[in-house]
Amino acid sequence: MVYNELHYERIDVEKSKQFLMDIITDFESAETAEKQIAAIKEVDNFSRDYMTYNAMASLNFSRNINDEGAKDEKEYYDSISTDIREVYDKFDKVLHESKFKEEIIKEYGKTFLDQIEMSLKTFDPKIKDLLQKEIELKNEYTKVTAGAKINYKGKEYNLAGLGPFHSNTDRDTRKSSYEARFKWFKDNEEELDEIYDKLVKLRHEIAVTLGYKNFIELGYYRMGRSDYGPKEVSNFRNQIVKYVVPIASKLQEQKKDILGLDKLYFYDGINFKNGDPKPKGSPEHLVNAAQEMYHELSPETGKFFDTMVSEELMDLVNRDGKRPGGFCTSFPKYNRPYIFSNFNGTDHDITVLTHEAGHAFQNYSSTHQPLVNYHWPTMEAAEIHSMSMEFFTWPWMRKFFKEDTEKFKYKHVSGSLSFLPYGACVDHFQHWVYENPDVSPKERKDKWLELESIYMPFRDYDNMVFAKDGGIWQGQLHIYQMPFYYIDYTLAQTCAFQFWIKNENDSDSAWNDYLRLCKAGGSLSFVDLVKLAGLNSPFEDGCLKHVVDHVDNWLKDFNITNM
C-alpha cells in the first residue's frame, strides 16, 4: 500500500476524550499491575492512531500549503491538540501516582516514567489557550516563509528554489541571489518580527504561569532533557569557541586562497573555484542509486529503503507551494516513516537524503519497541542517527558525484565542522532571548551580531540589506518553531564524527554499534544512548577536543589542489 492509499480520518475529539477518560477510570480502580499495564497499552494504541492522523494532516499541508482541504485538516488537528493534551495530562498524573510503579518499570523501563515526569512539568489546563495561540503563531511563520515568491532574473522562485544560485561559480550571481533573498526578508521583516516577538512573550507567559522564572527551564523539559541542563550546554558552547572557532576561521582563510579572492563575503559560500560538487543525474536516478547503496550497506537498510520506494514514502523535489526544508515524520499506526525534502540540484540533495534516511531508518528499526513513545528518542539523540548516516554512506558517494566525489567529502567534513559554531551561536542567542523576553526586535538583532562576532568572527555581509543588521537568523525555522532544538545538531555532530572515526578503523564494529543504537529508539536518555553506542558523551571533558583534532588532521592531510 502506497502513502496516498493509507487510511486517514479526523478523529472525533469528544469521543476520544471520553474514551481516554474511561481508561483513566479503569486505571485508577485497577487492583493489579496487569490491569494498569493493559490500560497503558490501550492509551498507547489510541496514541498510534492519533499521532498518525495528526502527522498525515501536517505532512499533506507541508506538501502543498495552497491546498485548502489540507489546510483545513491541519487546522483541525491543531485546534484539538490542547484538548487531547489535557486528557493525556490526567492520565500521566494517575500513572505517576501508581502503586505499581515497579511492575510498570519492569515492563517498559524507567525512561517511560521519566518521560511522564517531565511531561507533567510542561502542562496545566490553565495554559491550554496559550498553547493554542503558540500553535497558531508557529503556523503563521510557516505560511509566510512557505509562501515566499521572489522575482529573480525574470522568474519567480521560492526560498529553496534560490538555493542553486547561492552556490553558483559566478560571484555576481551568488551576490545578487542573496540580495534577492534578503530583500524578501526585509520586505517581510515587520511581520516576522511581530510573530517572533509574540512567540517569545507568549512562551515567557506560559513558563511564568507554570511557576518558572522564564522559558528556559520549561524549554529543556519540553525537549525531554533529563540528564543535562543549561550549565552543561554552556560549557559545551565554550569548548566550541575554544577548539572549533580557530579551525573554522583557518578554513575561511584557506577558502580565500582556493577561490583566489582577496576578501571573503557571506555570499562566497562555495568551496571550489570551478564550483561545488553537484549530483549527477535526475532525482529518479539519485533515488535508484540510493536504493543500490542501501542494499550494499546492509540487509537492514536495503529492506528499509525498498519499503520507502515501493510505498511512496518520500516527497523529495522542490515545487511551488511546498514548505521549505527537509524533515522526517512517521505514522506509528502503520509503522512507517516518511521523508520530506526539497531537491534543488545541489549537493545538499544528497546530504538531506542520507540525513533524513538516517532518521527514517532509526524509526523503522524501533517499531518493535513496546511503546510509541520509544519509536523516537529525544531530538539530540535522534540527530546522531541522521548525521552518522551521512558518513556511513561515504563509500557510495561516487554513485552520486562521480569525478566530484573527493570535493564532496571535503565540503562535507569542513562544512560539518564549521557548522558547530553556527549551531552554538543559535543556541546562545535563544538562551539570551528567553532570559530577556521584553527586549525590542532591534535589540535581538544587535545581540545576534554580537554573538556572531564570537562564534563566526569571519562573517562579512558586504553591507547586504537585512543580513548586515542582524536579521539573518529569521530564516532559521527552528528558532521560531522549536526553541532550544538547534544545539542538538552540534551535540549529535560530535557523536557522528566519532562514528566516522570508528568506521575508518573498524567498519563492521561501527555499523553494529549504530544498528544497536537505532533499534533502541527512545528507550533510553541521550547520555545512556550515547553509552549504548560505545561513544563518548559530548559533555565529557576532552571529547570535543579529541574529535576536533582528528577532523583537523584529516583536513590538513586532504589534497585540495586541482579541485
Provide the β-strand percentage band: under 5%
- CA gyration radius, whole angstroms: 23 Å
The best one-word shape is globular
- What is the N-to-C succession of helices and strands? HHHHHHEEHHHHHHHEEEHHHHHHHHHH
Uncertain residue segments: none
For the biggest sheet, the summary is: 3 strands, mixed
The neighbouring-strand order within the major sheet is 3-5-4
Number of strands: 5
Structural class: mainly alpha
Features:
two-stranded antiparallel ribbon, mainly alpha, 563 residues, 65% helix
Describe the 3D structure.
This protein is mainly alpha-helical and 563 residues long. It has a domain at 3-123. It has 23 helices and five strands. It has helices spanning 13-29, 33-63, 68-96, 101-108, 110-120, 128-146, 163-166, 171-187, 189-209, 215-222, 230-259, 283-297, 299-310, 348-365, 379-392, 398-401, 405-435, 441-455, 477-481, 487-505, 507-520, 526-532, 543-557; strands at 150-152, 155-157, 314-317, 327-331, 336-343. The strands form two sheets. It has a three-stranded mixed β-sheet, with helices on both faces. Strands 1-2 form a two-stranded antiparallel ribbon. α12 (283-297) packs antiparallel against α13 and α20 (487-505) runs antiparallel to α21. It is globular and about 75 Å long. The model has no long low-confidence stretch (mean pLDDT 96).
Describe the SSE topology.
Layout: H1 13-29, H2 33-63, H3 68-96, H4 101-108, H5 110-120, H6 128-146, E1 150-152, E2 155-157, H7 163-166, H8 171-187, H9 189-209, H10 215-222, H11 230-259, H12 283-297, H13 299-310, E3 314-317, E4 327-331, E5 336-343, H14 348-365, H15 379-392, H16 398-401, H17 405-435, H18 441-455, H19 477-481, H20 487-505, H21 507-520, H22 526-532, H23 543-557
Parallel strand pairs: 3-5
Antiparallel strand pairs: 1-2, 4-5
